[in-house]
């Protein structure tokens, strides 16, 4: 996660001065024809940020995909063989949990400003999914570590004798013979000459750093542990007092790091432990726990043996810690390929994604909680213990214990033998979890069945309830993505617009994204009974929000008049809104009402499914009361029903009149 202020320290010293003709950064001309270990998470979020894509409306994933493709295409042109390594969780030590929680708090406090239109670094929830899927499509070697990737990433670079590409200053502490290529300098060169066959960049090595600041390389872990924001035990200590009075360094924002380096450079201790003990002595009343945490943090910078080289060269799945020796082989493979995260298995914990939405409403993650409960049940079993979910309550992170669920067809599965279970059983578990009947998906293109099933679940379970403009906006953009007919980004789209965001509308769409994220994880755990969707094409945040506003005045077929669009859109809308068939009773009669349209077509009422359902997705009792409730719901939504006229347009008033008259006739 980096040493706070170290990048600024290096940049300031790189620009302003040299010491004895020594530069911290070396010019690395014509970098090409080489292996390169890439810090995947750092690169993904860096590319999203530098592309100036909107962060607050839920993601501009198609444009982000293009950025990722362009970057790795340049590497390929330069014959640079990239090995991408991604974080997989907290690891066994869990040493950075406090830091992760603090960052959650910081991001949550930024939500009000994000709602006002500011970019606050709250990245969209499917950013990493799009990144990983794009690299897999491009055949770029990719692995996800069991825990934090830093140590294994550095060990791989040492084993392959190649540099690391990252903007994370933790890598400036590791002893890497080929050094680190600072991401910011590297990206600027790629952006300047994307078609180049060589890249001019900067190279950082610990040797140059230590020579520049006149300290022993052995003291770098001590320096990082005392200065790192990740632990912050001695953060309040005024290291700047060791900077000589009147020197330029006193005015620097990094004066505390300058002072710490001067203090370390003056030490003549025999061991690093002696130096650390001397530092502890400077802080009065420091607790033993604080001492232990700083000592542990130093150990994080010891390079382990590489467990990833065999994965890339031979496909050997890295070993898990002894605490997870019970995990089946196929789960280990899924962890390594990025399909599953490990924190649930190791720590019984899941830190949920933060999205930009009204803090007056409950977290959008609550809608998909039942999906996650089944996921936990399959991973841990019914008696596997509760999972702590860290989610927002208002603008504060809070841990809540969640019980794993194993019910229905899931009771026929065990984690050990799950891949050997029949596809029909695995599909049944998935659809039961989303409370969707398989016939609902008939006629839906295969790779859209998962997002359509998610949309059915969201339409029924979201709270507060979305209306038809939200549903239609989602489906319109989904269809446009499927048909490759999304609007080309204009100049307006490439600039960040500081316009306020409707946090209530955002909350509706955020619920859908949370459901998509968790349902996709469940689908992966079930060994993909449904094809994995193309995440980059499913959701475009600004466009979805814009469509929702347009749909308050127009109908989808007035906005998009392409026949192919209309056919697919009607199919998806029908799949989501058509009621499930039931035999007998007034409720069943209402569910099968058809409208007489002006051009003689019959069209089943949309939007009626699930209006009177309980929280578990089951219908209420049959009878007169249910019948009248459904009738009232139909009338309330009458202005949202789409009726084709002979001109191919939609008429709300005729829908309302036709529905009321026909309903009255059926009830008489």
Which secondary structure elements does this structure contain, and how are they paired or packed?
Layout: H1 6-16, E1 25-31, E2 34-39, H2 40-50, H3 61-77, E3 80-86, H4 97-109, H5 111-115, H6 127-137, E4 142-144, H7 150-160, E5 164-166, E6 180-182, H8 183-192, E7 199-204, H9 206-213, H10 220-227, H11 255-265, H12 272-281, H13 288-299, H14 309-314, H15 329-336, H16 343-347, E8 349-351, H17 369-380, E9 387-393, E10 396-402, H18 423-433, H19 449-461, H20 468-482, H21 491-494, H22 503-525, H23 535-538, H24 541-550, H25 556-559, H26 563-577, H27 585-591, E11 594-596, E12 602-604, H28 624-636, H29 652-667
Parallel strand pairs: 2-3, 2-5, 3-4, 5-6, 8-9
Antiparallel strand pairs: 1-7, 9-10, 11-12
Helix pairs in contact: 3-6, 10-13, 17-22, 19-22, 19-26, 20-24, 20-26
The side-by-side strand order for the widest beta sheet comes to 4-3-2-5-6
Categorize the overall geometry.
globular
Q: How many beta-strand elements?
A: 12
Work out the strand percent. Answer: 5-15%
The helicity comes to 40-55%
Distance between the termini: 69 Å
Structural class: alpha/beta
Helix count, per DSSP? 29
Weakly predicted, low-confidence segments: 583-668
Q: What can you tell me about this protein's structure?
A:
With 668 residues, the protein is of the alpha/beta class. The protein has 29 helices and 12 strands. A 5-stranded parallel β-sheet has the order 4-3-2-5-6, with helices on both faces. A 3-stranded mixed β-sheet has the order 8-9-10. Strand 11 and strand 12 form a beta hairpin. Helix 20 packs across helix 24. The longest helix has 23 residues. It starts with 5 loop residues before the first helix and ends with a helix. The relative contact order is 0.10. The C terminus is likely disordered.
């Amino acid at each position: 996660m980096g040493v706070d202020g170290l990048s600024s320290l290096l940049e300031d010293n790189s620009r302003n001065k040299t010491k004895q003709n020594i530069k911290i950064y070396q010019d690395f001309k014509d970098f090409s024809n080489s292996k390169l270990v890439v810090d995947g998470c750092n690169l993904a979020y860096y590319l999203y940020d530098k592309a100036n894509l909107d962060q607050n409306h839920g993601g501009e994933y198609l444009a982000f995909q293009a950025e990722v493709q362009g970057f790795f295409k340049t590497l390929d042109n330069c014959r640079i063989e990239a090995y991408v390594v991604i974080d997989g969780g907290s690891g066994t030590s869990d040493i950075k949990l406090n830091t992760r929680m603090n960052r959650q708090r910081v991001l949550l406090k930024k939500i009000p400003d994000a709602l006002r239109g500011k970019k606050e670094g709250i990245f969209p929830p499917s950013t990493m999914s799009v990144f990983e899927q794009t690299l897999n499509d491009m055949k770029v070697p990719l692995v996800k570590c069991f825990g934090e990737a830093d140590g294994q990433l550095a060990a791989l670079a040492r084993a392959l004798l190649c540099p690391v590409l990252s903007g994370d200053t933790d890598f400036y502490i590791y002893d890497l013979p080929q050094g680190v290529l600072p991401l910011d300098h590297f990206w600027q060169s790629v952006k300047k000459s994307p078609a180049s066959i060589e890249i001019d960049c900067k190279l950082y090595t610990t040797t140059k750093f230590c020579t520049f600041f006149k300290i022993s390389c052995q003291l770098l872990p001590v320096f990082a542990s005392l200065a790192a924001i990740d632990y912050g035990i001695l953060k309040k200590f005024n290291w700047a007092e060791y900077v000589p009075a009147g020197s330029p360094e006193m005015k620097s924002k990094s004066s505390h790091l300058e002072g710490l380096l001067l203090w370390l450079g003056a030490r003549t201790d025999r061991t690093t432990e002696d130096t650390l003990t001397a530092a502890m002595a400077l802080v009065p009343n420091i607790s033993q726990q604080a001492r232990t945490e700083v000592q542990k943090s130093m150990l994080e910078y010891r390079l382990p043996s590489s467990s990833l080289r065999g994965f890339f060269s031979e496909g050997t799945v890295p070993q898990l810690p002894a605490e997870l020796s019970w995990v089946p082989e196929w789960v280990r493979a899924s962890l390594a390929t990025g399909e599953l995260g490990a924190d649930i298995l190791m720590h019984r914990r899941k830190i949920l994604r933060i999205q930009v939405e009204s803090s007056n409403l409950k977290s959008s993650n609550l809608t998909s909680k039942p999906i996650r409960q089944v996921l936990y049940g399959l991973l841990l079993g019914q008696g596997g213990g509760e999972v702590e979910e860290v989610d927002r309550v208002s603008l504060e992170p809070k841990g809540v214990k969640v019980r794993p669920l194993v019910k229905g067809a899931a009771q026929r599965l065990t984690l050990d033998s799950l891949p050997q279970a029949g596809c029909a059983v695995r599909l049944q578990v998935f659809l039961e979890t989303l409370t969707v009947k398989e016939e609902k998906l008939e006629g839906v293109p295969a790779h859209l069945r998962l997002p359509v099933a998610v949309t059915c679940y969201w339409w029924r379970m979201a709270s507060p309830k979305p209306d038809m403009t939200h549903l239609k906006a989602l489906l319109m953009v989904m269809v446009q993505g499927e048909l490759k007919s999304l609007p080309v980004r204009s100049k307006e789209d490439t600039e960040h617009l500081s316009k306020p965001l409707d946090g209530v509308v955002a909350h509706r769409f955020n619920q859908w994204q949370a459901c998509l994220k968790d349902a996709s994880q469940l689908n992966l755990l079930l060994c993909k009974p449904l094809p994995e969707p193309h995440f980059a094409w499913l959701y475009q945040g600004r466009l979805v929000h814009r469509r929702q506003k347009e749909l308050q005045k127009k109908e989808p077929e007035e906005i998009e008049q392409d026949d192919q669009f209309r056919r697919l859109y009607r199919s998806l809308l029908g799949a989501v809104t058509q009621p499930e068939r039931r035999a007998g009773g007034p409720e069943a009669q209402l569910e099968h009402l058809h409208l007489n349209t002006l051009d003689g077509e019959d069209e089943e009422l949309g939007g009626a499914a699930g209006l009177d359902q309980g929280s578990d997705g089951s219908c209420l009792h049959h009878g007169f009361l249910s019948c009248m409730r459904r009738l009232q719901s139909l009338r309330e939504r009458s202005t949202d029903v789409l009726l084709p006229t002979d001109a191919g347009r939609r008429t709300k008033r005729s829908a309302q009149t036709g529905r009321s008259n026909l309903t009255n006739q059926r009830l008489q």
